[in-house]
Amino acid sequence: MSGSIYGNLFQISTWGESHGKGIGVVVDGCPAGLVLTEDMIQSYLNRRKPGQTKFATQRSENDSVEILSGTFEQKTTGTPISMVVMNTNQRSGDYNEIASYFRPGHADYTFHQKYGFRDYRGGGRSSGRETIGRVAAGAVAKAILNQLGIEVCAYTKSIGDIPIDYKKCNKDNILVSPLAMPDLDASEKAEKFLESKMQEMDSAGGVIECIITGIPAGVGEPVFEKLDANLGKAILSIGAVKGIEFGSGFSAPLSTGSTNNDSFQYDNGKVLKLSNHAGGILGGMSDGSEIVFRAAIKPTPSIAKSQKTVTMAGENIDISIKGRHDPIIVPRAVVVVESMAAITLVDMLFMSMTSKMSNIIKFFN
Amino acid sequence: MSGSIYGNLFQISTWGESHGKGIGVVVDGCPAGLVLTEDMIQSYLNRRKPGQTKFATQRSENDSVEILSGTFEQKTTGTPISMVVMNTNQRSGDYNEIASYFRPGHADYTFHQKYGFRDYRGGGRSSGRETIGRVAAGAVAKAILNQLGIEVCAYTKSIGDIPIDYKKCNKDNILVSPLAMPDLDASEKAEKFLESKMQEMDSAGGVIECIITGIPAGVGEPVFEKLDANLGKAILSIGAVKGIEFGSGFSAPLSTGSTNNDSFQYDNGKVLKLSNHAGGILGGMSDGSEIVFRAAIKPTPSIAKSQKTVTMAGENIDISIKGRHDPIIVPRAVVVVESMAAITLVDMLFMSMTSKMSNIIKFFN
Amino acid sequence: MSGSIYGNLFQISTWGESHGKGIGVVVDGCPAGLVLTEDMIQSYLNRRKPGQTKFATQRSENDSVEILSGTFEQKTTGTPISMVVMNTNQRSGDYNEIASYFRPGHADYTFHQKYGFRDYRGGGRSSGRETIGRVAAGAVAKAILNQLGIEVCAYTKSIGDIPIDYKKCNKDNILVSPLAMPDLDASEKAEKFLESKMQEMDSAGGVIECIITGIPAGVGEPVFEKLDANLGKAILSIGAVKGIEFGSGFSAPLSTGSTNNDSFQYDNGKVLKLSNHAGGILGGMSDGSEIVFRAAIKPTPSIAKSQKTVTMAGENIDISIKGRHDPIIVPRAVVVVESMAAITLVDMLFMSMTSKMSNIIKFFN
Amino acid sequence: MSGSIYGNLFQISTWGESHGKGIGVVVDGCPAGLVLTEDMIQSYLNRRKPGQTKFATQRSENDSVEILSGTFEQKTTGTPISMVVMNTNQRSGDYNEIASYFRPGHADYTFHQKYGFRDYRGGGRSSGRETIGRVAAGAVAKAILNQLGIEVCAYTKSIGDIPIDYKKCNKDNILVSPLAMPDLDASEKAEKFLESKMQEMDSAGGVIECIITGIPAGVGEPVFEKLDANLGKAILSIGAVKGIEFGSGFSAPLSTGSTNNDSFQYDNGKVLKLSNHAGGILGGMSDGSEIVFRAAIKPTPSIAKSQKTVTMAGENIDISIKGRHDPIIVPRAVVVVESMAAITLVDMLFMSMTSKMSNIIKFFN
Known about the structure:
The structure is a homotetramer. Chain A is of the alpha+beta class.
């Protein structure tokens, strides 16, 4: 409950600061017998690694992961999987200045108020580097989901006021676009928009959409542990996320029951929905259709443009934040959203295994 | 973890079905010495009670609460507080028909898929009556917050596309408007809009806004147990909520860092923020300003208008849902939102008490 | 975490004081489709009901259970099962005196220190009546175990220094002996011993043994959630239990590795152990043989014999506790031990379902 | 819940196998501002390090700890503390043989049954090396307790049938005796006893006693989260522990209420107990006197003496376990018992902070 441990049956425990010795995660509750290699983890970490495009910080971290426990002959043993990425490119000097004031839009002030002091180097624990642990654990979760035919796919839905056009989308483009947009035309427009923001020494935000396919109906618990409630917590726990919506989301209030309800229909003996305003979740449980949600990501708070703030010594000052910062968080956050969704799904799939007495009897026989 | 228990240090355990014997909640972790009476609980339950306006179901439940344990001479003893509301106005006959098919927009189908069968009477556990337990527990949480000078206030921000006008708002109106709108002009417009929907045998949705004042800075844990993440889970666990956003929320992606960041400034020695796009939370911790969030509520799925669905026997049919249903969920959900926010705040306030060694030493001396 | 909620996947939430309105429990996480009736619960409650023998308090509570939620047409629905026993025979007058002093061996003093005041009527929440909720929940757990061919059987192993003789034991006698002893000769001796203690206005203690059969190998988690660790917590959470041991227990330290180790042997292709010093648990996981543990129960602290204690007003006094007290707790605690063991087993069986990837793949296909 | 994470507010997450890359722990929930250095951790690890006496395995691991996160300028920051000990002296060759059979008294068989296969090198996760994570986390817990004036002290109470004589005990001897016995005469006798067991190629067990001083009254929760229940779980989760008892423990059943009850008495205005059969805990809460418990440790299961067991290939065989094994586990387990007790105490102290409304109001003002 202390804040860096997440999950019930599939649990992750993350640690590490931006400018400490390293960043890591312990995954507890991964079933035995899953093929798991460092390469599998690395391929996800590479999607959030800095320095790959001009729209990401130019810090050149390798972010190489090492598995320290929990596998034997490339298979999980059922015991905790400890993974670590050592920090290599820490230029703490960049941050000496930060020690004396609170950056607007950052957690400097709240950390200081909560703990009495803070590790000011690069934001310490509130740095985006904290998500390395989430992505490494997410890679394990995705390996499990893969065995069950479940896919989690996130991408940039819009940057600023530039949305993707679903007609032009192609899943393969997500890894091609430097902004993780499946529509390359929109990506190009957004790149230009970002370049103008960078020239203005400013930053931008955007929306990430995530689609989950292959989830059987009935996953999620009906009251407090609703699937959407847990996905909501998971995604809102990612820094910079300011909102989440499922299916028709914030347009649902503008609709009516007759329009917003999704009709059911039999199709070759299977129950289908004729629309998906629900976003694949009814009453907190998956309904067998695609799960769809969107997360609102705020503009990067670290900007070179002048801002007003206060020093710890009691002065009002103007600052201009130097250092190597992302002009936009969205593209690198896409894999973090996927990871948190995957971790949550595995946990809730496991929790759903005890819903029916008949299944339990079958399991133990 | 099984779904009807919520919280870490301040825990609630709810139970009960729409047409069972009653609905209740056990609150575990309420500190000793808090004045608590049935009247205090009842006043909150009355705000969600049906049959009070024409925009709510005409079922006439009394919803009288009884405290069965945990208090002695009108003060809490530190032991579990069991509260129960017996069901009195169950007309199960209304629901016999429902047994044979799955209502669109409801949890009938997902319950059936998860559990193999379901208590079809009035939706059973997925009924809105489930929230009685939340509101009773919320009343306890609010009594605690009241002692700490913290207030949680929710209201209807919009119905359909009719928003309130902040210039015309008055907090007292929330209890005056049948739609819980602090702007009575907007309320009147919305009432007419709802009447038209009712004539069309259709339903409507809306947005609830919640403002929390008096929270000290530093409440919330920095990684997975962020204050916004937990409030998000709490609110998304309420049936019919399709989205949540904090501060600038889904408009943040349209902004830039220089605009969206809230500058800090000293004012008589106190740190203030010059704006509140963050909604009072930075890095998952309260920043000392007002916490602001909004929840999107979908239109009531139970409508008299004809809809397509499927029977359990394998047929495609057209249905028209009879019974006494709310044309809109929003006004009665306002107190549920307040309750879930209050419960979550108490829990996170308690969790925050161990953040500093100096505080702990002082506490035990 | 607050203390009256227990379990991870099969969770129970108990409430109620000795002299409040009632005692109850909410069971969350019971799978759907289990046959469950009030009669099934009542038969377990009857085993702990007072007033049945001269060795139990003569208070004549009926302890009639009512199921308020979670079943439909006599089957569990997967939603919380709320069960309540209303208090009927409260003679609070008996306890007025207690309000002013702290009874030795009771929780009066610690309750007062923890909460600042206490519900002094009959011990309030620390009364043995608190175990009603455990036994009702235990009945649900036993119904689940019964479907899986698992049996939990507890009995009195000794009273004072009078042990049972295994050669004379018969399981049916457990319900015949007023002291829950399977050896009726020992029971008779113990009855005489207890009569002498009662004449001396004193009380006695004893040991309860519990045997669990039918548990498959591999239940329990290897590090902190060991099966014996969780059974230990469950049993030590019962008031008056001062110790627990598994298998050879406190004689193991007097043995040697060569004697204490249980050899394995194939018998018709199945792995058997040639002895069971381990008590059926190796490395925290069930080994497929019988699980055996013993709990030490202290003598009833409420005695009529004169004792020294202190008043809340600051005086040293001599007291003699009146009221209707059990001269021994052991016989009525037997079903409580069974219940806590059963609840723990169900929880750990459910947790063990995700240990192997191959099982999970099979489950979801 | 998955087994390698422990605690509610002060949480530890351990990982690592005997012959993997290393062993570690993440401590989440340590308050900010605590002085913490690697030397402080190392001094505890040195107490469980192998190769120091002839009664411990001759493997020469350095067991050097490194702190990877959570401190800044030698003080904790409130964020997770990751600590690691890399494995250096792995002679996996010793264990090749073990791969083919199940060692009696070990978890080989249960691991195999649970997970389908196992990391057989040195017992993998079920190795005693797993306790390194517990001891490192225990050092953090002890640093916290130290600030609160609370001391946890464990020692060997008996080896085989050789007990210490309290009249001859001196706390300083615990670190002098190779067997962690505070009575050096008993230690000498026990050393000779162990030498004889080693010559017989056999092993021995013993009892560890633990005394906790300085705990205020009222720590522990009255029902399931009793202080003794949680200490019980903590200690029983240590491999080789077969039983635990508090205060008079397994002798309580042989006593009577009048003898076993501890009378209260005022002494200079403070409430004292005239005896401590309760072991410092009444109704699951600390009563302000010393907490006393004892744990029964079984003889080391790894012995060179011939034993019968089975191979995975289906044969019954005789084995003689080679390698460098402890003839007794007790002396090295003493610091593990201290650690688990300290971790549990910190957690329950933190949980107890919300028991009274008056304290909470004071805290937030």
